Amino acid sequence: MGTTSGSTLGAMPGHPGGAAEDRLDELRAAEYGYLDAEGHAYLDYTGAGLPADAQLRAHGERLRGHCYGNPHSENPTSAASTRLVEQTRTAVLAFFNASPEEYAVVFTANATGACRLVGEAYPFEDGARLVLTADNHNSVNGIREYARARGARVTYVPACPPDLRAREEDVVAAFGQGAPDGRRGLLAFPAQSNFTGVQHPLSWVGLAHERGYDVLLDAAAFVPANRLDLSEVHPDFVPVSWYKVFGFPTGVGCLVARREALARLRRPWFAGGTIQAVSALGGWHVPAGDETAFEDGTLNFLAIPDVAFGLDWITAIGLGPIHRRVARLTALLLERLTSLRHPDGTPLVRLYGPSGAEGRGGTVAFNVLDARGRVVDERIVARDTAAAGISIRTGCFCNPGAGEGAFRIGAGALRGDLGHGTRSLDEYLELLGLPSGGAVRASLGLVSNTADVERLVGFLAGAYTGSVPDTSGLAPRERC
Fold this sequence. Notes:
The protein is of the alpha/beta class. The chain is 36% helix and 14% strand.
């Protein structure tokens, strides 16, 4: 089944900035032609962005045209790699409008690696706090294990129904009393939820700093379609995965960190490339004096320059048109999903998170309801949409706190011995009394179009309206 390039969006009456957004349709045809050529309706941009043909061509041309070697040496091929890596650091800072005097760029494998780096090296101690919004990716939730091991107190701020937003008053209450004697700990929250699309206020960064907290701002789901200006907001640690922004390369992320905050980290080990001097017999080492102290071993020097090309690519297109396109399509998707009904007038879809387009990004989570009003097992939706050539995502999206808020699971049900022992995910669901292992997530991005949205909505209406789907033959769930 094929799709069109979706140029009808640019021709919508009253469509502001139509010419700029029309260019996105042209780009889809010219640089992302594999989507329509293969009949894809790609609605998983929060999972991964898509690469342009130009990115792939540039990668091949660079490698064919020059010789690059392992950095950390003065030979010509090493110097060539080092030069491109440093140029990419500069490009990352420019993309975020970040001063190189204030911020440093640490290359990691992904945003998860950046979060682990902060967790293992942050100076947690007795009396300190780690404040987390319940709406956090597991790569951020995992920092709590480092905090607890060192005696710090871990506090979660709930995601409150119906929009599943954290309330600012709850964030402030979680900080506790002021910190006249120094820093109290770390606040970690996502700029945009990877589950519901909720965009949390960036003003919380300033609130936290006023109360003596450092801030880890998870930007992985936010930056593909939104401007993060680090000259205006000053989080201490910003994890990013670049494949989320422009699809290629995978395996390269960043921790963008304030130099002042980076200097307070204390790594529990050292590795090749991270030290200035070391002695085996003497048992001592001196870390490198800059961000390379946090980059273990050999960097992915053949792929890191592709990040610079990707940043130039996005900058040339403009985050403004991308943001406006995603916002408009998100509003359309929400409108279409909430209008779906069974023959008796009952809803076909249950949304999680904001029902309107304000204060949210292009990530929309929902469940399909059958003709009896029961949640359709998300594995059925995954199976059926895949067969129809529609790429969405199902499950809990590595965000248990947002899922617990969406499915109204109280803290009491999660305590006791539930987390002990070895159980399958299906057994956990049975103990919690949940009909499904997660939600369905559709997410919009750079070259999404109206046809993608209408194809998903039309499929849901045709496949599930008035029906009670057959659940036989589904494989057991493997993970959350």
